Amino acid sequence: MQPTRTKQNRRAFIKQSAGAAFSFFIVPRYVLGGANYIPPSDKITLGFIGTGKQSIGLASRFMGLSDTQVVAACDVDQQKLTRFAEHVQKYYSDNREKSDYKTCDTFKAYQDLLARQDIDAVVIASPDHWHAIMAIDAAKAGKDIFCEKPLAHTIEEGRAMVKATRKYNRVFQTGSMQRSSNRFRHAVELVRNGYIGDIKTVKVNVGDPPLVDNLPLEDTPNYLDWNLWLGPAPQRGYSATLAPPISVDIWAQWRNYQHYGGGGVTDWARTCLTLRNGD
Question: Is residue 184 part of a domain?
Fold first, then answer.
């Protein structure tokens, strides 16, 4: 990912200062921090936008990279935000080699997170109807972006995200485990190299389309800013189906309703192969 101008200036200053300070005495990096030591100035600092179930797994993967560090998160659900921050801080506390870590700062508004000049990139794991706005604002703020699937809620939004990424010269990646995880990639190689025989028929199951939102209204919990959760979606009262509390260990079903997701068509489209031997 491209470093920010602020980080470039800081690195230039450090380089010049180091040249003067260590003219007569040079200490190898491994003496200061071990063979795998990576100084804070060389790490990619991450902020998480959206801290639901998916974000926990994503954070664990990113924190496992020695050159990446999660430093901030935001969510309109205070319970989810607190759980996420505790998860991040426990990880770094348990991994003592990451001794330069300070804390995972938390915000309710994603704009406040984007205003942080020390954050290089963001991970967007919000409901689909927020993807485009958050990604475009992140690009404008000079952040590189990892955005959960699907890329956007509509084709028009997707094109706007591509244009913003190019305009502001950012790095953008969409998470899609069905295309990038080792197991799926291995399966593709088996098919392409003929290990499972000749494929005669391909059946595609793309899932159901999104439903009309006719969910009953419920009392809004005090830990959730429901208006901010809705954002660009039409106004309606709270529903636990759309934003369940963390005490209920289920995936939120906003993805199945048209104002917030694309149903199974965009969320979990999958392909099944029916195979026949050549004879």
Answer: no
